[in-house]
Write a structure and sequence with these properties.
This protein has five helices and eight strands; from the N terminus they run ααααββββββββα. It is α+β, with helices and mostly antiparallel strands and 212 residues long. The chain starts with a helix and ends in a 15-residue tail after the last helix.
Length: 212
């Protein structure tokens, strides 16, 4: 086998292993994933065993169904459970409304996803409340004092307090204290699509007290 053939064989092996890992992490059967991607259980079984390939368009459909990027199927790395993510390495969204939101949980997503929100004094998640998918959400105040609006109800939470609610409930969080505030959101099950997760830019989280 020449170098090109060896490279393609190794690539197929990586895709096969990572596809199976992501599918099992999502608790999807081969049949269900086939229904979601317009393929079949037998085709996906062959793909997971490295006995067949897939077109780029099919890989895109599979990645979307799994809530990952296509590149995630090709990245070779350590699959252990001891993955360290330093604070300064957290993928982050651009600052908006005095709030910086970073992603803590990492792919492959399992039963939940975790985000950190850092608020300047007066900062908030936005002028309007919002809702999203999932069945359960918990907010934990790590620092400061925040106001949480859930539909018509308003709650004032301080460091160490937490609140649970359905993500489908219109909600909004704002810093109402006189110092910076920090909260953690835990959402189950993980529902963010690949496009949503890809908006987070690695290494853009700010250390406490720093401004760009």
């Amino acid at each position: 086998m020449n170098d090109e053939g060896a490279r393609k064989a190794r690539e197929a092996e990586i895709v096969a292993a990572r596809l199976k890992r992501f599918r099992l992490a999502r608790r999807l059967s081969l049949r269900r994933l086939g229904e979601m991607t317009g393929t079949s259980a037998s085709f996906l079984s062959q793909l997971e065993r490295g006995r067949s390939g897939a077109s780029p368009s099919t890989l895109v459909q599979i990645a979307v169904a799994l809530g990952i990027g296509v590149a995630d199927l090709f990245e070779e790395g350590v699959d252990g459970h001891h993955v360290v993510l330093r604070r300064h390495q957290r993928p982050a969204l651009p600052e908006s409304g005095g709030c910086r939101k970073t992603l803590v949980s990492q792919r492959p997503m399992h039963e939940f996803e975790v985000y950190i929100g850092e608020f300047d004094v007066g900062g908030s998640t936005g002028d309007e409340s919002y809702s999203h998918g999932g069945t359960h959400e918990m907010l934990v105040v790590l620092r400061g004092k925040v106001e949480v609006n859930l539909d018509a109800a308003t709650y004032i939470l301080e460091e160490g307090d937490s609140i649970e609610y359905a993500p489908s409930t219109a909600h909004r969080t704002a810093n109402v204290g006189d110092t910076r505030a920090e909260v953690m959101w835990i959402i189950a099950p993980a529902t963010s699509a690949a496009d949503d997760l890809n908006r987070y830019v690695a290494g853009k989280a700010l250390a406490p007290g720093r401004r760009e």
